[in-house]
Amino acid sequence: MESLFNATQRFESDIYIGDYTHYVEENPLTHKKGVVMSNLPLNDIASLHFINHQHISVLGVNFEKNLGYFKDKGGLLASNCECMLVSDKARKRGWLILVELKYCGNEPRTVMDNFTEALSQVRDTFIYLRDVKQLFDERDYRYIWVVSMPEHDELIPFSQFYPSPERLLEYNDIYHVSLICANEIEIRTHQHIRLE
Fold first, then answer.
1. DSSP code for 18
2. How far apart are CA 128 and CA 77, in angstroms?
3. Could you count the other beta carbons within 10 Å of the beta carbon of residue 178?
4. Residue burial 117-144, b: 16+ Cβ < 10 Å; e: rest
5. Chain-centre distance of CA 116, in angstroms?
6. Strand 35-38 and strand 83-86: pairing?
7. How far is CA 183 from CA 7, 81, 190, in A?
């Protein structure tokens, strides 16, 4: 996979993912911009945190640095999420995670709209990578979609935006994916992750 994407990153410790797109508007002097994947905490912005105490080897692909991969022959950009994480040393069916972050500021009313949009972006990215680019097929990985709203752990109980059990089963039946809505996730093995 590294040969297909620009600026891939390898992680064997904790992973922090944040999106500085809106942060830069209010803090123009910051040196960070767009989606950032780091093994160090992002102290100036709330982030999604993957805890990796087992030092599982993870390949990270920042889709913002690979927009050319998402352009069709006419130059139109397909919908894409923030990034992809892959446990690339799994012996059998490691996981492949697609991540979308949404920052809603202090507007709780926008949380559900942002959640719905995030879910749509992850789904569209998955379908594009699987069907158009044929990057993987159903048997290659355990597929996980992660939707994170880093600012909302305290503002609103984030779990209230978790889809119903029926909807989760529908995603599993149709796309063969697991959906996780969280801001902190533990990497357990090359095949398993869990909510912290």
1. E
2. 11
3. 16
4. ebbebbbebbebbbeeeebeeeeebbbb
5. 15
6. unpaired
7. 24, 16, 20
Cα→Cα distances 135→41, 82, 157, 180, Å: 31, 17, 36, 22
Q: Where do the structural domains in the chain lie, given as residue ranges?
A: 9-195
Report the distance separating Cα 122 and Cα 90, nearest Å: 23
* pTM for this prediction: 0.92
Cα–Cα distance measured from residue 56 to residue 162, given in angstroms and rounded to the nearest whole number: 27
H or E segment to which residue 16 belongs:
strand 15-19
**Secondary structure of residue 128 in the 3-state scheme:** helix
Q: What is the pLDDT of residue 156?
A: 46
The two structure tokens encoding residue 42: 């992002």
Q: What is the pLDDT of residues 140-189, one digit of tens each?
A: 899 999 999 888 765 444 445 567 788 888 889 999 999 998 899 999 99
Inter-residue contact 147 to 181 (CB < 8 Å):
yes
Residue 57: alpha-carbon gap to chain centroid: 17
The number of CA neighbours under 13 Å toward the Cβ of 50 is 34
Locate 162 and state its tokens: 């978790």
